[in-house]
Design brief:
Helix content is 52%, strand content 10%. It is of the alpha+beta class and 277 residues long. Strands 3-2-1-4 form a 4-stranded mixed sheet.
């Protein structure tokens, strides 16, 4: 059984109820410094007229990455929209960096973001994501312009309300995936599903965490009947399965359940006696 630990309402929040980000430069392990540095220098060389800033997010930014097994997730912020040729160059660069640093990371991923779009207040997701989940490692830190944020249903919906879209895309990819692609897709959607589950109970719990095991704990406090599903998902993240049918069926059933119930559950408000005791 997954143990319910010491998480209580207010965990991960300051005294005023605002999110305390659990990413920082200090948490980025030294082993990733060279890879990050080369990534920045390569981006500056290829896109010196377009590059505004670079951010690290994910397990490396949280200080939880495992050498070789974890990805280095980067966001490159550009001043102007890239042409298709420039996007192809960026994809090629990410592939080269991945190959050069296989001894440290599983993959180097470089997501694209644009300055004007990110600064638009209506793009709440991009604002909050940069503020709470990203560490600036080059250029102006746009995250400093946003927030602070409280745990609201809007945060939950903006972060993980796309579960139906991601589910459909994942099921389509699984039908033809094999080998490493199948493993990668399985791990990625297992993480997505746990984060979506957590987002469903985020506001009512008033607990902020980006750690999958803690997110699982928060969700199971409200949905203990899902323990076997959570256990399976966590196991698949650690050791990807080989049974394609089992993966497809579980993802379809649980993804559809999350999609059907997400909005109603995410909008249930916090009650002082309804969180962890």
């Amino acid at each position: 059984m997954i143990e319910i630990g010491i998480l209580k309402a207010g965990y991960g929040l300051d005294q005023n109820g605002f999110i305390v980000s659990d990413v920082s430069k200090d948490k980025i392990a030294d082993v990733y410094a060279t890879c990050i540095h080369e990534s920045i220098e390569s981006l500056k060389h290829l896109f010196h007229q377009h590059l505004h800033s670079v951010y690290v997010y994910g397990s490396v930014a949280r200080g939880e990455a495992i050498a070789i097994k974890s990805d280095l997730d980067l966001i490159a912020m550009f001043n102007t929209k890239l042409s298709s040729d420039k996007l192809a160059e960026l994809k090629k660069l990410a592939g080269e960096l991945s190959n050069n640093y296989r001894f440290i990371v599983r993959d180097v991923g470089i997501a694209v973001a644009y300055y004007d779009y990110t600064l638009d207040p209506s793009n709440y997701y991009e604002n909050a994501f940069l503020k709470e989940l990203c560490v600036c490692v080059y250029g102006e830190d746009l995250g400093e312009r946003f927030g602070p944020y409280q745990l609201t249903s809007e945060i939950a919906i903006r972060f993980n309300g796309d579960i139906n879209e991601v589910l459909n895309r994942t099921l389509t990819r699984l039908t033809t995936a094999s080998g490493e692609d199948f493993k990668t897709i399985t791990q990625s959607f297992a993480r997505k599903l746990i984060r979506t589950y957590y987002s469903m109970v985020m506001e009512r719990s008033q607990i902020w965490t980006t750690r999958l095991h803690e997110q699982s704990e928060v969700f199971l406090h409200h949905f203990p009947e899902k323990e076997s599903i959570i256990r399976t998902l966590l196991n698949w993240i650690d050791e990807p399965p080989t049974d394609h049918k089992a993966v497809y069926e579980l993802f379809k059933i649980e993804g559809e359940w999350a999609g059907a119930n997400f909005t109603n559950e995410a909008n249930i408000p916090y009650k002082a006696n309804g969180g962890f005791s």
